[in-house]
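Tokens as discussed.
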């Protein structure tokens, strides 16, 4: 968890932008699809 926070801080320091909400929601939905699919494989 600490590593993720440090990575995020470093990315923002280099000019990274936050992911727009629709893109974030789409990624969450795709993660759920992949998790569910992997369960049945």
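Sequence:
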């Amino acid at each position: 968890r600490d590593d993720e926070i440090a990575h995020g801080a470093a990315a923002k320091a280099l000019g990274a932008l936050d992911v727009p909400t629709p893109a974030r929601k789409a990624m969450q939905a795709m993660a759920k699809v992949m998790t569910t699919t992997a369960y049945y494989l």
